[in-house]
Amino acid sequence: MASHVTSADIPANGEHLQGKHVSFIQLVSLVVFLAGAAVSAYWLFFDDGVWHESYTYSWLFGFIFFLTLTLGGCFWTLLHTLTNSGWGVAVRRLMENLGLVFPAMFLMALPLLCPDVQEHLFEWMNKHREAAGGSLFGNPDKYQLGNTDPVGGWLLAAKQFYMNIPFFYIRILAFFGLLGGAIFYLRRLSIAQDTDDNADCRRLIWSRKCSTVMMPIFAVSATFLAFDFIMALDFKWFSTMWGVCFFAGCAINSMAVLILTLTWLRSKGYLLVVTSEEHYHIMGKLMHAFVIFWAYVCFSQFMLIWYAAIPEETSYFILRNTGPWNLPSIALVICHFAIPFVALLPHYVKKKTALIVPVCLYLLTVHILDIYLMIIPERGPSLTAMSKYGHDLSGDAAKHGVTQGVNGDIDLFVSHSAWIGDVIAFVTVGAFFIFVFTFLLKRSSLFPNRDPRILESANLHG
Amino acid sequence: MSVSSVEKPSEARENKFNEKIHIVSKKVKRVYGYLAEFESASHIYKGAEKVRDAGYKKWDCYSSFPIHGLDTAMGLRRSILPYFVFFGGVTGLITAITLAYTTQVIIYPTIVQAKPANINTIAAFFPIMFELTILLSGFTVLFGLLGLMQLPRFNHPLFNSRQFNRVTDDGFFIAIEARDPNFSTATTMELLEAAGGKNIELVEDEED
């Protein structure tokens, strides 16, 4: 048994991340972000061609990938506080810091709130704006919407109570405001305890009470952010499992980020007293559980849609399970479930740093594929329908709402190398994420050093 | 039946009966091992570390509740059960694939709502694959556990000890079995005394 940690071993003021360990990372990420932001801003706001169109999808992809990591940070913080967990007190500050990147991600969401960008992403907004006579934030009535499109008009009318532009903006602001405020408040309570000479349980009990209210806010925010930003790419399609599938990805991969961060900090000599391989074991077990949960909910979504075969539900899978996207979709089943499921089964994989780190990196990689498959297959067909530039939409086709590409078909892919944009957007948002995350890590002690349960956590025994 | 320290009334009667008709039992009573009582959970924890360090393998700790960290103090290795369960689960998975695929695709291709009857049908078999994997894993856990613990059994030699009755109430015991290669009537007893054991008792097995 490892030596017993007593309060004499815990530094009275906690451990603070020193500048020398993080300044280089911060500098690089800031430079990369600024360079990427310049390119992104050009394509998103100043370019006026096919790159502008395709890059809106790239940006959405980069934004959603890192949004899932931060949402997962919020989830683990809330779950930890809500269940009054003792095991993870030593790593709770990492969860809080990861969660607090979420409100910062609002900056990355700003382009998606601009009508100029929305025009290529969200067809339903175009129809609404058209029906409202070109007003950018107008809210047409059901009758006007029904007349926009003989195919989807009645769907737009039926969904108008939720899918309307003013409510869209209110929702997005509310999600970022409420959940961001919640995680900010929880972290502030937690940090205030670090310097309190009479640190007692008062703040912990109050945090727990607060998190009972905040957890539903998280559930609603995560679900409807996924609805508004991803499911709405095709307004005709719907799936009630969508929010859960999205959330499962958040939980797995934020845990992977937490494990990687913990390993990085330990390699620099931090958190060595308060964390041990038992923490890795529990975090690995939670990640394993959510790998199974992900497969369970994603298969449930697929199974119900595939079995019922209702046209307006199957469109998502017809696009992704036929043609060139079929192989990546099948690969997702094996690479996102079968391989990590078996890899994480033995206890030593979860405990040994040298084994769990590659698994975490692997999971993040297949998460890229997961998010990519959610968003990017929509780009070709949607732009075929919505593009003002590279596609022939003249004549009867446009009038009847039938979408036709250059050769009279729906284009599965845009004609230029739009994947370069995907990489650039991913790196740009990623650099922003790393910069904010390391900035937050530096702001306070790396673990809640005056939490009464820190010894319980430090002496964790499997 | 024998308890070294206290005789039960039934045994006394039996002995008297044997004397009367001049039959001396020729059966050799097998020694099960030494049983020692410990005062508290922390005493048994310290005692277990001593027994472990003396190199004993066939021994066990008995308590009415789980004691945190006792497995490390006893030097227990991890159970082999997870590996059984893994292969139990794999067996279930393969059974399910074979069962569903053979019946629904090969022998009698079943077409439901124009779904294909080929390898692409496999999505419909996932629930069966899942259930059978879980079922056989669960069975392996249950029966593997019973097998490894040699349960169920009718009796245990330690039940011959009267003081052992307290194990379900407030007693903490260590029993070192005689079949351990390091076992000797003298040194094992000394070890248990040194480890803090009280009321050390040589427990004998039932006849046969």
Briefly characterize the structure.
The complex is a heterodimer of chains A (462) and B (208). Chain A is mainly α and 462 residues long.
Question: Any chance you could write out the topology, listing elements then pairs?
Answer:
The complex is a heterodimer of chains A (462) and B (208).
Chain A: H1 19-46, H2 50-82, H3 89-104, H4 106-109, H5 115-121, H6 123-131, H7 142-146, H8 153-158, H9 165-194, H10 202-229, H11 242-267, H12 277-308, H13 311-320, H14 326-343, H15 347-351, H16 353-375, H17 379-386, H18 396-399, H19 419-443, H20 454-458
Helix pairs in contact in A: 1-2, 1-19, 2-3, 2-5, 2-10, 2-11, 2-16, 2-19, 3-9, 3-11, 3-19, 9-10, 10-11, 11-12, 11-16, 12-14, 14-16
Chain B: H1 9-20, E1 31-38, H2 41-53, E2 59-62, H3 70-74, H4 81-107, H5 122-148, E3 172-177, H6 187-194, E4 198-204
Helix pairs in contact in B: 4-5
Describe the structure.
The complex is a heterodimer of chains A (462) and B (208). Helix content of chain A is 70%, strand content 0%. With 462 residues, chain A is mainly α. Chain A has one domain (20-133, 174-391, 433-458). In chain A, α3 packs antiparallel against α9. Chain A starts with 18 loop residues before the first helix and ends with a helix. Mean pLDDT of chain A is 90; it is low at 390-405. Chain B folds into 2 domains: 9-15 and 34-77 and 157-204, no CATH class; 81-148, no CATH class. Chain B has helices spanning 9-20, 41-53, 70-74, 81-107, 122-148, 187-194; strands spanning 31-38, 59-62, 172-177, 198-204. A 4-stranded antiparallel beta sheet of chain B has the order 2-3-1-4. In chain B, α4 (81-107) runs antiparallel to α5. Chain B is elongated. At the A-B interface, α12 of A face α5 of B.
